[in-house]
Amino acid sequence: MFTLPPMDTASTGAYDDVRTATRALATEAVHAGRDDLARQGLHAPPIDLSTTYPSYDSRAEAARIDAFATDGADPVGPPVYGRLGNPTVARFETALARLEGTESAVAFASGMAALSAVLLARSAMGLRHVVAVRPLYGCSDHLLTAGLLGTEVTWTDPAGIAEALRPDTGLVMVESPANPTLAELDLRALAHACGSVPLLADNTFATPVLQRPAEQGARLVLHSATKYLGGHGDVLAGVVACDEEFAGRLRQIRFATGGVLHPLAGYLLLRGLSTLPVRVRAASANAAELVRRLAADPRVARVRYPRLGGAMIAFEVHGDPHEVISRVRLVTPAVSLGSVDTLIQHPASISHRIVDADDRRGAGVSDRLLRLSVGLEDVDDLWADLDQALGAPRERRVTALQEAVR
Ligand SMILES: *Cc1c(COP(=O)(O)O)cnc(C)c1O
């Protein structure tokens, strides 16, 4: 039996003695959250599946729970109960915070659970109003528009943020690059316009490899860790990277509402982070080449690709986008993104279906738009599949039509 690492060595935001501020991202990706392992005689991180932890000192437990109730800091010493914190999940949180350049990070059962916790944390302070810029991920849009958590949203364009702020505004929410249009925002300018209101940037598409929103003034950086951070299509998770004060509030919400991440998911996410820089760069190189070929293709009406780069492509076809989806063979026709394999989906039918059609179109999500999440396959194989899925070359189709008319 091995001894489980004490919470303080693996905990988020603990700037312990082994922390070195100068390590490069690629180094952090494989070492952060693992700094104590060698000292413990371990190489792979242990998976702690305990839901509860024995303690013969209930006075100490009382003090630890009182401290958590005060500021939400990770309890010092051995873990108490699975909903309060888990050492394996804490390793992932530590690593993600290091990659995003924040003090702390708090993991949740999904990206939506993470966003819900942020909204609840602000509402609980009487700050129920949210200012947001479209497009957002479809379910984030829906959560805000429907006011499911008792929040009220004002949708605005980036230039209108300062005017949209109210005394009860608790959050400004944006995505850049946005899902699914890949629209990009100037986060630094937005953070400035927010004044003292926290800016939440959903960084799911860029990942910390391409963009670290906290460096540009975003107080909260949200990820659907289901996507690139996990990276293999087998983990559902969310995480918020932020300062320790906000992290404490989020841990308290997580404890009280129960949207915790399973330790096995925490393990897989930590493993996913170690290859994140390599995966993102390789998939981005594939994407850039596919963008070049799509943009030159007469069957494609429009291609959107972020200036930032990345492995997501949005494009519109002259033909029927549903036909393209029905014809792919190597590429998987499925929602979600950020996996090692390439996925394609039709946002108006799936990821953004829950958004009102006029709002969706107003945000630039046309009914012809297809969203491609480029994976790590050989780029020529990917192109061969897309090429046949796009159908007959346009000129030839026109000729055939002309012949039929004759
Ligand atoms: C998928 C996604 C979410 C929601 O995350 P889940 O893990 O599915 O709950 C939020 N934001 C963006 C940008 C996403 O792509």
Automatic annotation (TrEMBL):
State the needed cofactors, names only: pyridoxal 5'-phosphate
- Enzyme class (EC, first level): lyase
Q: Which Gene3D superfamilies match?
A: Aspartate Aminotransferase, domain 1, Type I PLP-dependent aspartate aminotransferase-like (Major domain)
This enzyme's EC code(s): 4.4.1.11
Is the Hydrolase keyword given for this protein? no
Q: Which InterPro entries match?
A: Cys/Met-Metab_PyrdxlP-dep_enz, PyrdxlP-dep_Trfase, PyrdxlP-dep_Trfase_major, PyrdxlP-dep_Trfase_small
| Single GO term (MF) | methionine gamma-lyase activity
Source organism, top-level taxon: Bacteria
Name-wise, this protein is: Methionine gamma-lyase
What organism does the record attribute this protein to? Streptomyces cyanogenus
